[in-house]
Write a structure and sequence with these properties.
48% helix; 3 domains; binds S-adenosylmethionine; alpha/beta; 14% strand
Length: 348
């Protein structure tokens, strides 16, 4: 009871502080300029994320979602399923490049997030079944519906994203389904998606050797190295003998996505301690592992690398960065420092 009262008091306190800041700022700037000011200023954004992460779980999640919907990447004007449909298409492209097929395959996706576009693409490209797991039940029905409405309204754009590889009968079945007044549960049934949340990819209730492809898209950079190891070990258990890991990792400082005044490796100047204070919360945790660290992680588990596709930012001139790299990163090569993402495909 006393802990309930304490968390209520903490919540009220933070809500008051936040309300006060909003009030003061709104009186100085108009609302949309104020919002832009927040997201384009990475330190301020980090402070707000820290503040919100202190709130009790359910309140914290709803406030964070409200912020994303009103100020951030989930604003109505920014909602568009194409980037994650492309993520699914790109995943499948790489599976095919190592001479495997998605058709009839079972996928395990780590880190569903709020929407299902990546795994919808797997289904449209012939997957038999997708199991998707997330530590947090972030999936949002209103966003899924908005994505499907977009697909209905822009059928030819969607078809051209997929080229001639799309299963037309599946797309038609989906469009017909969306015309009805559907429930999300029956949508997931149509797509043969099993959504596990809350669920931990390092402890799955799935049979040994039951999965063909173990995938993630911009997830592993948000998970601590110990847990990644546990997730990959669990992946080795559930993957078939010839199963593959197919992971796309974003190594960039995610604050640089909205604050264009900092470079994509800005966070490499900070010590672990300092960085943890700035961004060590549930919304922005980034492990800052670099490409060589990830390659080591896979190799130490004896996963044979089939494809290693680093995304090197050619415009990033390491010697000209306006900060010094922290000791943790100083011994890394310029090429590693300028690698801002990668695809890694390995045997189990
Ligand atoms: C940045 S989001 C990525 C979401 C989605 N893949 C996308 O492309 O938009 C990372 C997700 O990974 C989830 N996650 C973190 N640790 C996890 C774990 N151990 N098992 C499953 N999901 C996890 C988080 O809850 C979060 O929803």
């Amino acid at each position: 009871m006393s802990s309930y009262v304490e968390s209520l008091a903490t919540t009220c306190f933070f809500a008051k502080v936040f309300g006060l800041i909003v009030e003061v700022r709104c009186s100085l700037l108009n609302k949309s300029t104020f919002y832009k000011f927040i997201i384009m200023n990475w330190k301020l954004k980090a402070k707000i994320q820290n503040l919100v992460s202190f709130l009790p779980d359910s309140l914290s999640y709803s406030i964070y979602y409200w912020i994303q919907r009103n100020v951030g990447s989930l604003k109505d004007s920014k909602l568009n399923p194409t980037s994650r449909l492309l993520a699914g298409i790109e995943t499948v492209k790489r599976i095919e490049q190592v001479n495997r097929s998605p058709i009839g395959a079972t996928f395990l996706e780590v880190g569903t997030g709020r929407r299902i576009n990546t795994i919808l693409a797997f289904w449209l490209l012939g997957a038999e079944k997708v199991v998707t797991v997330d530590l947090n039940p972030y999936l949002k029905e209103e966003l899924v519906r908005a994505d499907l409405d977009y697909i209905v309204k822009n059928k030819s754009e969607i078809e051209s994203l997929f080229g001639n590889r799309i299963f037309n009968n599946r797309l038609d079945a989906l469009l017909e389904f969306v015309e009805s007044s559907y429930q999300i549960k029956s949508l997931l049934e149509l797509l043969n998606i099993e959504y596990i949340a809350p669920g931990d990819a390092s402890h799955l209730n799935l049979r040994d050797g039951s999965v063909d492809f173990h995938t993630s898209y911009t997830v592993l950079e948000h998970i601590s190295p110990e847990i990644i190891k546990a997730i990959l070990k669990e992946g080795q258990r559930i993957l078939k003998q010839d199963g593959l890991f197919v992971h796309c990792i974003d190594y960039s400082d995610h604050f640089s996505h909205s604050d264009k005044s900092i470079s994509s490796v800005n966070f490499l100047q900070f010590s672990d301690n300092y960085w943890d204070k700035i961004a060590g919360n549930r919304y922005m945790y980034m492990n800052r592992l670099r490409h060589d660290d990830f390659i080591d992680l896979f190799q130490n588990l004896n996963c044979k690398i089939l494809m290693n596709e680093p995304d090197i930012d050619k415009n990033l001139i390491v010697q000209k960065l306006n900060f010094e790299l922290d000791a943790r990163f100083k011994s890394k090569s310029d090429e590693v420092i300028s690698t801002v993402g990668s695809w890694i495909i390995t045997h189990r």
